[in-house]
Amino acid sequence: MRKILIMGLSGSGKSTLAKQIYTVLPSTWLNADRIRRSYDDWDFSYAGRLHQAVRMKTMADVCDDAYVIIDMIAPLEEMRTILEPDFIIWMNTKQSSQYKDTDAIFEPVAADLILTNFEYDINDIVSKIR
């Protein structure tokens, strides 16, 4: 199983890209907002963010599909380390979001693929993931 992390600021296009990849690859798609909603857990403190990363990793690790797509902001390097992704896509399409507290803590990303706009070839992205 290969873990694909699609991360970036709120509104950067993470879920849109995740949905497109999900329709092409044999995969499970874990969306951070849906997971938080299912647990009724909207704690965005430092501890809450790390807890969400651990929860997402635990869920990903039990998936049987060839790929797991993790779609979350993941603003902290520590969160990305916890997730242990095999491939990181940074949706670097925005410089700020409606969540200023998240924007303020967002740490630079060593990504495998950085997208700076919404014009991309999904087949090219999937070939890079494989």
**The CATH topology, please?**
Rossmann fold
* Name of the CATH architecture: 3-Layer(aba) Sandwich
The main β sheet shows up as: 5 strands, parallel
User: What's the number of domains?
Assistant: 1
- The coarse silhouette is globular
CATH superfamily: P-loop containing nucleotide triphosphate hydrolases
Q: Percentage of helical residues?
A: 40-55%
Biggest sheet strand order reads: 2-3-1-4-5
**What letter string, H or E per element, gives the SSE order?**
EHEHHEHEHEH
Structural class label = alpha/beta
Query: pLDDT average, as an integer?
Result: 97
Could you explain the architecture of this structure?
- This protein has helices spanning 14-24, 32-39, 46-61, 77-83, 100-105, 122-129; strands at residues 2-7, 27-31, 67-71, 87-91, 113-115.
- With 130 residues, it is α/β, with parallel strands linked by helices.
- The protein has one domain (2-129): Rossmann fold.
- It has a five-stranded parallel β-sheet, with helices on both faces.
- Helix 5 (100-105) links the parallel strand 4 and strand 5.
- Helix 3 packs parallel to helix 4 (77-83).
- The longest helix is centred in the middle third of the chain and has 16 residues, at 46-61.
- The protein is globular.
TL;DR of this structure?
This protein has 130 residues and is α/β, with parallel strands linked by helices. The protein has helices at 14-24, 32-39, 46-61, 77-83, 100-105, 122-129; strands at residues 2-7, 27-31, 67-71, 87-91, 113-115.
Question: Strands, helices and their partners?
Answer:
Blueprint: E1 2-7, H1 14-24, E2 27-31, H2 32-39, H3 46-61, E3 67-71, H4 77-83, E4 87-91, H5 100-105, E5 113-115, H6 122-129
Parallel strand pairs: 1-3, 1-4, 2-3, 4-5
Helix pairs in contact: 3-4
